[in-house]
mitogen-activated protein kinase kinase
Amino acid sequence: MALVRGSRQSKLGLRLPDITERRPRFPPTASQLPKTTASQQPTTTADYETVQVLGHGNGGTVYKVVQKKTSNLFALKVVNAGSDPTMRRQVFREMDILRRTDSPYVVKCHEIFEKPDGDIAILMEYMDAGTLDSLSKTGGALTERTLAHVARQILNGLNYLHAHKIVHRDIKPANLLVNKNMEVKIADFGVSKIMHRTLDACDSYVGTCAYMSPERFDPDSYGANYNGYSGDIWSLGLTMLELFVGHFPLLPTGQKPDWATLMCAICFGEPPSLPEGVSDEFRGFIECCLQKDSGKRWTASQLLSHPFCRQPDNN
């Protein structure tokens, strides 16, 4: 979900429900319930105050909230899960994955609640610099040294997710959160899959289509056995390239993307390349990510050992 900064507001539009207000349409498993201890009581509505709306998209809204007792900031995402039992099972399954994820390179989920109307409220850590998308738009294109630092963190996150058999499927600048210390964390894995489920309606979420690998568009031409892990690597390559050149690399600057244009560019065009003047290490890294043949793309683990990622961590 892309995070777009909005204006301050005094009240939360969708209130965080008490634990006793949960009324699932089907019995949740023990692993689906939030884990609390004697010193960590369940969150209630009165514990938080809304600061502002951070963004909208993918059927939900993200709020910046502050915990009154500690003054700690959090991000609260409210997802419109709907009343479809199948959809709700998928939501709980994916939210369980999110809760179980424990990596410094993946945004932390603190608690999950279900409202009586079926909406899901997710309390997450707050990243105070927004996303890599917003950072690049306000601060300009990133340098090679900074991108090497960014790439290492994303790859560590992907390596963790892939080792736990989790495919993100929506790596892009808007789904990579960042704080003022330039710590980067992967967010929203599984959410777009929950909200869209299939590729049939991909024209309705162009931003996601833009970072799809060729085999997701055309599995017959690029290998019938779709490998989601290598698909994440393609998306990473496009992301790194975009953050360097300052615009989406598959289309001319300012051109509005559409499904047909993106499909032609990804499936029939040449893989995008870096401009003249970049280092051989960076160029080689991008080429390892943007191989049209998914079998030739490097894995997250392999890319962590690439010379580009082994540069001194000095931003």
The chain is about 35% helix and 15% strand. The CA atoms of residues 76 and 104 lie 19 Å apart.
